[in-house]
Write a structure and sequence with these properties.
alpha/beta, 38 strands, globular
Length: 819
């Protein structure tokens, strides 16, 4: 069969939309839900979805990207853009899903649907590796498994595909039915049922029942009995079932799991005989995901011998892009484990978020197993790179090299990775952002190593997706029209400067705030164009502040007069921010000073007050609610007095992170979001609803066995009366792991065990008591993560998470992950 052709008129019919068309014969190939991610605008339709942000606010952005086809719910935009096609519907998300259902129904496609609490994406990617030799597969890009991601994934189905593998994720009841109608899986796989996204369900049974709706019409259901204990056998979906387990009787009953030189050997009972396989992984999660894939191969009719051969060749799946510091002041985006057209588009979007360097380079391997003609494939890639404003391409592989003439910008080509590495000393990489993206067989990890600075073995990993989720969490709490100022002072609470600012700018926060002018200057030099408020402006830095268009916080008459003197005779309406002291008694104008402030502001046209703000003292604490209410009222009175003098209304803001959570009335025109971005809000029980953004990890340098009575560390403070075993790890107080954690106060996670410090913390090293635990040099030691939290560390030494984060030394390398 041929691929279906969708004109905008045809889509209007499918959606039963009220169509206002300029050209009804435009052919639509691409569905766009993010105005920043546009491939071929002339063949794209933009869905103005409303989730955390009203998608209609981005119609202007999409229009500037040359999109002229829109699905909307607000008719006012029709007259604003008279040269565009508009489809007016009741609900744009429902319309997107309806279009995906129509597209899915045009294909008689064998489809695997995957759901569960964890492991969905890994299982999907591994099944792709295992089955690609036998099928032309279409699959969800990365983890596109949401109400939006699933229809976008299914839209990729084309006539020559013979198998679809799609994952589905939900976070509340009544969501799965929509995804089931879109995917229509013939084969269903339940990975597991855990605690992830549990807050949307009243019970584990409700969560399980909702997930199993995906498989209501499936022919085959693959599952583990341990994860369906809340329902009876009769309630299991699928006309046939295939079970797997390492704990009880099942169709595939795993009876032995043995680690062998970095791999894992599994034996199982299947059809009354013993079978075996080797998985090239040894961690618990990978072993379980490997069992699921083993069960799936057997359930699909592959022999145990065929399954064993394929499973042993499974490759690591990198779920995240890594942003690292590179050689010669470069930034490296490492995506060296996969290469396909969908994930390339995602990686290029992340590349475009980076503004710290003007030049953008892509090192790209040729793409395999796409099922497409090479000329067609590399023509699309060339157009994509051009559209994403890539300055330089290094293509690796004979196929991509054959089509070098398609790339109309700076480009070099090499037949293989070895040829590139041989030529590397003569290649120039300076002050640029480099995306390294290659198919597994090209071993691009070797290239990434060449480009990346040698890193200290202690690393702070920052999950940018988690930060975005936290930003959206707070966006869902603020009223429409309320702006967000994101606090990136103190090196973004220890997590990085331009890396975090780039992310926040990309996700359209309204303002940034830094502590000192030099922080703001660094952001400007890294390409940050958002308005930036400087909270502690120094008189000596006023000239530089003005040069870089930074906006000072003004907290006294003296500072205001000094800043006015620094402005030139040609500066007018320079933006400033007025700080009111409503009760913190740190900085700010007190009530008796307001008249003098009004007099200066009334007589000066050289400054313009962008905002008037104050700071809540105890917005997280119920026992101080009376005082918080007084602060809000006091601030309103003073702010209104100033507004009356100014003759215009600046932005008013007083709410901090906890204020957003507990004081809706304090939102006013803008809120200031700080530590909440990083996953901490003392107003939320156990930070409920927020995701852990940072993981601090180090490695074991050496393991020693000590005799009874021996001591450990300086001043012999670590005593081992019964002897035992210690591990030395590569982190000390120079890295920010304070001496207060010494002598058993601090703990780290090694191989799933929480082990205490022993002896004093050294400048560069810490010793841990690992008696009774199997640990070897090179093993990972987790200082904090989502299980062993920063909150716990802070409690252990009587401080707050802010101090733990901001103490992390700059010599600790930051690695940024983006999925």
């Amino acid at each position: 069969m041929q691929n279906p052709i969708y004109t905008i008129t045809k889509i209007a019919e499918i959606l039963n939309a009220d169509a206002k068309l300029i050209d009804g014969q435009v052919i639509i190939q691409y569905l766009v839900v993010d105005s920043r991610s546009v491939l071929v605008p002339e063949n794209a339709v933009f869905f103005a979805l409303s989730s955390h942000r009203n998608g209609h606010e981005f119609i202007k952005d999409a229009y500037t990207k040359e999109i002229r086809n829109f699905v909307i719910t607000e008719p006012k935009y029709i007259n604003e853009y008279p040269d565009c096609n508009f489809l007016l519907v009741d609900d744009t998300l429902v319309a997107l899903q309806k279009l995906a259902i129509e597209h899915r129904n045009k294909f008689d496609l064998k489809t695997i649907g995957i759901t569960g609490s964890n492991g969905k994406t890994i299982v999907k990617e591994w099944l792709y590796q295992l089955l690609a030799a036998d099928f032309n597969i279409v699959k969800s890009p990365k983890s596109y498994n949401s109400q939006i991601g699933v229809p976008l994934s299914v839209w990729q189905i084309e006539a020559d595909h013979t198998l679809g593998i799609f994952e589905a994720g939900i976070s509340a009841v009544n969501e799965m039915q929509h995804l089931a109608e879109i995917i229509r899986p013939e084969i269903g796989i339940l990975t597991n049922i855990g605690e992830a996204h549990a807050e949307g369900f009243a019970s584990k049974k409700e969560k399980l029942t909702e997930k199993l709706k995906l498989f209501a019409t499936s022919e085959l259901f693959i599952y583990s009995p341990e994860y369906v204990t809340e329902i009876t056998a009769k309630e299991l979906p699928g006309k046939k079932q295939f079970s797997w387990s390492s704990k009880q009787t099942a169709d595939l009953q795993v009876i032995a799991i043995e680690p062998i030189e970095g791999n894992c050997y599994l034996r199982a009972i299947y059809q009354n005989r013993e079978i075996e396989c080797i998985l090239p992984f040894k961690d618990k999660a990978s072993i379980e995901n490997g069992m699921i894939c083993w069960a799936t191969l057997l359930a699909l009719g592959y022999t145990p011998e065929q399954a064993d051969l394929r499973l042993e060749k499974l490759s690591h799946v990198s779920m995240r892009l890594e942003l690292k510091n590179g050689i010669n002041q470069c930034s490296i985006i490492d995506d060296s484990y996969s290469a396909d057209i969908s994930s390339l588009a995602i990686a290029l979007d992340f590349l475009n978020q980076q503004n710290q360097h003007e030049k953008k380079t892509v090192i790209l391997s040729e793409l395999f197993e796409t099922g497409r003609d090479d000329l067609d494939l590399y023509t699309e890639i060339a157009e994509l790179l051009l559209q994403k404003k890539v300055n330089r391409l290094i293509g690796i592989g004979t196929h991509i090299s054959k089509y070098a003439s398609l790339f109309k910008f700076e480009a070099q080509f090499f037949d293989d990775t070895n040829a590139f590495i041989d030529a590397f000393p003569g290649l120039q990489f300076n002050h640029e952002t480099i995306l390294v993206k290659g198919a597994r067989r090209f071993e691009f990890g070797r290239i990434s190593k060449l480009l990346t600075q040698k890193i200290h073995d202690t690393v702070l990993e920052i999950d940018l997706n988690a930060m975005v989720n936290n930003l959206q969490f707070y966006r869902s709490k603020i009223k429409p029209g309320v702006k967000i100022m994101a606090m990136v002072k103190a090196f973004s609470y220890g997590s990085g400067s331009f890396e975090i600012a780039n992310l926040l700018q990309f996700h359209k926060v309204d303002y940034l705030a830094v502590a000192y002018a030099d922080e703001g200057i660094a952001l400007r030099k890294a390409g940050i164009t958002l308005p930036i408020m400087v909270m502690s402006p120094e008189e000596s830095a006023f000239d530089a502040l003005i040069k870089h268009k930074l906006e000072p916080e003004i907290y006294s008459i003296e500072v205001l007069n000094s800043f006015l003197n620094a402005l030139s005779d040609y500066d007018f309406d320079y933006p400033i921010h007025i700080k009111i002291d409503s009760g913190m008694h740190r900085l700010g104008f007190d009530q008796p000073e307001i008249d003098a402030l009004c007099n200066v502001l009334r007589d000066s046209a050289r400054v313009k007050v962008q905002s008037i703000f104050s700071h809540l003292v105890a917005s997280d604490a119920a026992e101080h609610d009376g005082f918080t209410q007084q602060q809000i009222e006091r601030f309103k009175i003073i702010a209104n007095q100033l507004v009356g003098v100014l003759g215009y209304k600046p932005l008013l803001h007083i709410s901090n992170t906890s204020g957003i959570s507990r004081w809706p009335e304090g939102q006013m025109d803008m809120v200031r979001l700080g530590i909440g971005l990083y996953g901490f809000d003392s107003a939320l029980t156990n930070n409920r609803g927020l995701q852990t953004v940072m993981v601090l990890k180090t490695t074991v340098t050496q393991v020693k066995t000590l005799a009874p009575g021996e001591t450990v560390g300086y001043s012999r403070k670590g005593v081992m009366p019964n002897g035992g075993k210690i591990a030395t790890v590569k982190i000390g107080y120079a890295d920010g792991y304070t001496r207060y954690f010494g002598n058993g106060v601090g703990k780290m996670l090694i191989n799933g065990h929480l082990v205490p410090t022993i002896g004093s913390i050294c400048m560069d090293m810490t010793m841990l008591d690992i008696t009774g635990i199997d640990v070897k040099p090179g093993d990972e030691a987790i200082v904090f993560n989502k299980e062993h939290t920063i909150m716990q560390l802070a409690e252990d030494i009587g401080t707050i998470p802010y101090e733990i984060l901001t103490n992390i030394s700059q010599r600790v390398k930051r690695v940024y992950f983006y999925e």
